Sequence to fold (426 residues):
Amino acid sequence: MDTLLIRGGRPLHGVVPVSGAKNASLPILIATVVAPGEHRLQNVPDLVDTSSMLSLLGRIGCPSLVGDTTRVDTSRVAFCEAPYDLVRKMRASVLALGPLLARCGEAHVSLPGGCAIGVRPIDQHLKGLEALGCRFDLEGGYVHGRVDKLRGAEFRFDLVTVTGTENVLMAAVLAEGTTVLENAAAEPEVEDLAKFLSGCGARIEGAGTSRIVVHGVSSLRPSPQAHRILPDRIEAGTYLVAGVITRGNVRCEGASASDLAPVLEVLRNAGAEIDHGEGWVSAGASGRVRPFDITTAPHPGFPTDMQAQVMSLASLALGTSSITETIFENRFMHVAELMRLGARVHIDGRTATVTGQPCLSGATVMATDLRASASLVLAGLAAEGTTEILRLYHLDRGYERLVEKLSAVGASVMRGQEGRPNLAVA
Ligand code: EPZ
Fold:
């Protein structure tokens, strides 16, 4: 099994190109199903998760061709099923529900099951789709959905759910009449999905806010223009923290300062040097940062997907920080691993208190989920000595060309093999 070897203690300096957003690519790839024909998408990142979604499209009869422009042909949908072997690898496959119901009037999607960060139920997805006239039964670990005719409705989510909003949105665009979604997710990735659907002829207002209005249309078709996936704000945020935690300065080319606003505010208040211009953001530091307090929240609050990464930064701050995770019930899996590197963290319910240390020291640690593994990379880059991160497949799900991008800004990093003697990283 692949591992990542990092020789820490080197300030990173330089430019990192930001890839397309994983969490916009996944809904947009499956959204092609609601508009029969050949779609062209640009800036789709080459990740395990996007490959999984392309496999799912292939399984339902929609071939694709990956390249600078990814082409997906949804002229025919032969099957309306997202099978367990794909869903268990990538829970975002649940996003097939809305598009298949809108396209075929039926959908058979394996229940995703939980994951390391929480149970992650899909009750809101089903309630929202039921409001549009869909009926579901659960059998054999699958959700079986049917609908004769999608009808617009007013629906208020009980809680903010990103993929729940996306699933209902992808069905509402083909419903008869108007749909109003209240307490919808306002993440930039939802807005990018709405932009893609509008390019296919959908009529959507308010995407990117908590109230989305959809005027259903009878059919959609691929946009004549290729849709360009927006930059990945979480990937960019991760590399910006790398610039700060290593006391260097990293510039993320393609990053959006507005999408990153809540993260930049925390870094700036902690004493990091933040700058940004047209299509780029940079972050750095010349010493240890000041402690900070964060509470994760739906956009435009502090993103839960950056919580683990800033905890690594807090581990080296000049004082005690408080990090409260409100979105997922088990998103502190990185804490035990960070403590192996010398971090001092006390967890009380959903709040972690981090007492900053003058340094961290390299060790072998275990990745448990995507963003937890990113936090271990950041800690390893700052730690003295060599850090080896096991179960690298978690990282490969969400970070395109990580070794190449880190090496280009001066990191001493390489992939290794678990259990094999690794050359000492230079
Ligand atoms: C999306 O997951 C992202 N994934 C996650 O990114 C991200 O952490 C999360 O949104 C929050 O921003 C994709 O977009 C593919 P939610 P999602 O539904 O939609 C509860 C990453 O690292 N909930 O917004 O699955 C749920 O349990 C990943 O890139 C229900 O109770 O998250 C959670 O506590 C990790 N019932 C909260 O809501 C539901 O029907 C928010 O979950 C749906 C959700």
